[in-house]
Amino acid sequence: MQRYHLTIAGGGATYTPGIVNSILNASDVLPLRKLVLLDTDAERVATMGGFIRLLLKEKAPTVELLVTTDRRQAFTGMDFLFAQIRSGGLPMRALDEQIPLRHGVVGQETCGPGGFAFALRSIPDMLAIGEDVRRYAPNAWILNYSNPAAILADAWHKRFPELKSLFICDMPIVIELLVAATLGQRHGELAFEYVGLNHFGWWRHIWDPQGQDLLPQLRAHLLSDKPLTLFEDEHVNADWIPTFERLRKSMGLFPEFLSNTYLQYYLFGEEMVGHEDPHYTRANRVMDTREKEVFAECRRCIAAGSVADSFLSAGVHGDFIVDHARAILTNRPFRTTVNVPNRGLVAGLPEDAIVEVHGQVTAHGVEAFGVGPLPHFQRALMVQQNAYEQLTVEAALEGSYAKALQALTLNRTVPSADVAKALLDDLLEANRDYWPPLR
Ligand code: G6P
Ligand code: MN
Description:
The protein is α/β, with parallel strands linked by helices. The protein contains 17 helices and twelve strands. The protein has helices spanning 16-25, 42-59, 71-75, 89-102, 112-136, 149-159, 171-182, 215-223, 241-245, 247-253, 264-267, 269-275, 282-304, 316-330, 376-398, 401-410, 417-430; strands spanning 4-9, 32-38, 64-68, 80-83, 141-144, 164-167, 191-197, 200-207, 258-259, 334-341, 354-362, 365-368.
């Protein structure tokens, strides 16, 4: 049986143990020959590598492990690249969240000015990865979780149209699982229709196996304050629950659709700012919790010489990315949400906009499902957000201050061009070591 060389870019991330466990659970279709943890942070990835080495020793002793900061080594001979990079790390995420809040604007890692700053750091890094994939492993499949996903997909698809890639996000699947559990249904038996951009979309239908649309039932459930059925996942924690609870509010205001949770930042900006402490944001919380706990656990296991009793195990996040690889390898269709160039899928949006819709993944890649014309409200929001996304890519690639300013001014979270300029100048200062120069 063929065995595969899989590389994880951002291999030092806290998500790595979950992803590797999911890969090992799929060894019937995705047996590994070689696993590479690639990271720019040698120390972090060495600790993670120590944990993964023990995991492989106990569960898959024939797999060769390479821990490296060198892309040529990591990519040569590679079949799959799972990309989950975070350019600038969590300390820069904290600034992405805190700087906008100081201006009274939403502070979030992927939405608004924070997402913009993150994009300007990540685009050059993603494109450097793409150049080296093209050089060393042009036939590899790239499955990407890195953020901001739509903006990175835009830059990527324009530069590397020939590479085999899928840009995915786990928020839609998490929401769909939550919806299914709340309705007392099995997720696999429901057929969802979703349309939007990444972290910016809506479910229009949720069909049961008899073809009945369950959206009205879900609406009634949410609006009558009945409890949501949460499930075991890294998202089900104190920081995320208010976000899921806020689905009731968007449902009440816009009852035709179930909104993606991330729309809270665009629709309820003041409320979101009001809940935040500009000195201690989600990034700080992640650094004080997940980051510390995962690395402490890695070190504990390394000292004990075993991962046998470790809590670092497979979950929705790891299983979801592996399900895409499984579909590619088995040619068994997997229905999922993907971020792909529009090309007529959504009427009224540019052909090259990266849209997030359902599609079917097989060995031939993704076949995305078009959704026909949209109501003014959704279409206009998407056109505006997509223009922001494309201007962000152009600002990064052309080094254009003018386009950066236009992008931020267009973003719905930013109230005026004056605020956009003040924000841009502060973000520029904070990102001097990361952004391409803007003129
Ligand atoms: C969801 C989103 C990801 C995002 C993550 C942040 O999974 O789909 O794109 O990176 O949430 O979660 P965190 O726990 O780091 O705030
Ligand atoms: Mn996401």
